[in-house]
Amino acid sequence: MEPTASEWIKPIQRQSLSELAYTSLREALMEGRMKPGDELPLRPISRSFGISATPMREALLRLVTEHALEMDGRGRISVPHLTRATLIEVRKIRGFLEGNAARQAAIAASPEAVDALEQIHVDLGTAQDQGDFSRAIGLNTKFHLKLCEIAGLPVTHEVVSNLWVRCGPLLSHLYDAGLPPNWDPHPHLRIVKAIRGKDPEGAYEALNMDIEGGGAGLLAHVCD
User: Where is the signal peptide (predicted)?
Assistant: First the structure.
């Protein structure tokens, strides 16, 4: 069985094959390019990456250890389904950490950094308009991680990245019902405006509005 999201798979050359495979898989999880329940059979996915089974196994098992993937009693590896409780917990943690990053960004971010953050959202809107929802989901992830970056909080960025690895596959359902509600303005633009205006609390509130409102429909795709 070949991986369902083969478009994100690229042949790997040299360096650390296991590390490169791990990074590629991790990014695919973060950006919603794999769905909950997708299986990752070792030999087919190794062939897709153009590497042997040994480094691929190492990469997969590393992600299993991090709870980004799961392995059943027969050794089959797949993308886990989130429970409602786990999703709610992740959202609360994200709200606190990313909200704090938004506050800090409003204090410390340079105008150029804010411009770069805003451009990510512009690109996201273009992807939506073109019906390229896979790219839009990836840009949404990029927006939130960029926020932690411009806040100058590397530890927060690392922790938030790990949370996105856990919840990213669920984002594959973000556009199942079509485009999200047309908020006026979109919470991303509220975040950008608050950061540009040096409004820490406004940035915090807009970030949490985005998490709560934007991901509300995802609750229909979790386990009890």
Answer: none
